[in-house]
Amino acid sequence: MDLKHNRSVKLNDGNLMPVLGFGTFASDGIPKSKANEATKIAIDVGFRHIDAAYFYQNEEEVGQALRDKMADGTVKREDLFYTTKIWTTFLRPELVCQCLERSLKKLGLDYVDLCIIHAPFAMKPGEELVPKDASGKIILDVVDICDTWEALEKCKDLGLTKSIGVSNFNRKQLELILNKPGLKYKPTCNQVECHPYLNQSKLLEFCKSKDIVLVAYSALGSHRDPNWVSSDSPYLLEEPILKTIAKKHSRTPGQVALRYQLQRGVVALAKSFNEKRIKENFEVFDFELTPEDMKVIDGLNRNFRYSKFSFAVDHPYYPFLEEY
After folding, report:
1. pLDDT of 4 higher than 60
2. Which residue in 54, 56, 82, 260 is the catalytic one?
C-alpha cells in the first residue's frame, strides 16, 4: 500500500477507508458545541474520515456539522467516511442494531460507513453509559462476542452500515470471530491504541496476514482525561527523538507520529479541537520518513498503554493480558 500517494485503503469488503481520520472524542469538561466547530474545520481542511462513537455523546453535534458541510456544497455524503461504535452496554445481540439506530437518529444520516464493536467486554445493559453498583464499582456483563458479531452482520445486511469491524480486540478475540462457524463477514478493521510508545507491531503483522486494517487511536499519545488516563503518563509529543526527527523534516512531532503510522500501513486517527493543529495534522502527505527514521521510532516502543480499562481486568474478555 503506497500511502504517500494513496489517501485511502481498500477494506476486505471492497469499500475504501481514508487513511487519515479525524477523532471526535472530548473529555467531560469540553462543551459539546466544540465537536461541531472542530468537525467543520476538519472537513474544510480536507479530512473525509470522521471517527465517532455512541459513547462520546456528541453525535448530534458531529452529525449537524456533516449535514451543514453537505448543505453548503463542501462535500457530498459519498465523499465522507463516518465511523460509529456499538457501546459496551449494547453488546447483547438484541441491542446491537438499537445502538446503531440511535446513533443514526442523532446524526440525521441513513447509514454509517463503518460500525465497530467498541470493546470486547460488555457492561450491564441499560441507559447508564457506565453502570455502577452502590459502592461505585462498574457492573460488567458477559456476552459471547460471536453473538454480538452476528448481530452486527445483520446491521450490514439491513444497510445501516456499509462495513463492520472491531476495536480493542486482541489476536485471540479476532480469531474467535474469524473461526466462527457460519461467519458471513470478516471484520474489516481493528481499532486499537497505537503510537510510538505502543507500536503494536505483532498485532499489526497478524492483522495484515488476515487482511484486517489496523486503525490507530491515540496516535498522538492521549487526551489527559483523568477518568481513563493516569496523570503521570508520558507526553508522547514531548519525546526528544520525535522532536529531533521533526526538526530534520521541518515538521511537528505530531506530524511525524502520524506519518510513521501511514508508512507502516496503519490508518491513523488524529484528535484535536484546535484549528491550527487540525490543519497541521492533515499535512502529512507531502513528506516521507526515511527507513532510518522509521527504525529509530520503532525503537521508542515500550508497550505503554494510556487506556488500560483496568476496571474490566477480571472480565473473561479483558483484551490486554495477552501479549497482543
Report:
1. no
2. 56
